[in-house]
Amino acid sequence: MPQVYELEIDGFQVTVILKSVKNMYLRVKPPQAHVEVTAPYYVHQKDIEKLIRERSDWIDTARDRILLTQSQHTNPNLLSGWTPAKEEEARQILESTVPRLLSQWSTVIGRQPTRITYRRMKTRWGSCTPSTGRIRLNLALAFVPEDLLEYVLVHELTHLYERGHGEGFRNRISGYLPDWRQKRRALNSYGSY
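Structure (tokenized):
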């Protein structure tokens, strides 16, 4: 008979299912992007925690992809129809808006990216490589309200301090933008890029 229990590990709510299997399996399940680990009965909780921590970037990517897919069903093709002219317009909007926001927020946060680039992205609004200090922003952000662009920028700047989306990340971004969760939900309602 399987044993099922819940854990919170670095901000992830995880359902653990212990049963007669040989290996540990990690899944992110639609529609709510819930994290689930199936493991043999003899596996220690510390091994499950280690797996979650080691795979946190993969979990974030999988969750983003599932949640984005869900938002596309509720608001399909809102930002589709890219043309060279639309891409150029988006780039100009971001190049005129982001430096002002960056000036404001890099002072508050205390970190400055080494480089910011803009491009079309299929599954993310932005990304950060902490080791190089590089931030990439989705061109589609040019067509959402500025406070949502601001949220993505602050989110990525926060990654210059905190990798992943664990408790340290959530505490830090909450200090900068207490309503960041609402902004994230609003942003994901925009659907496809």
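Residues 84-109 form the longest helix (26 residues). The chain has a mean pLDDT of 87.
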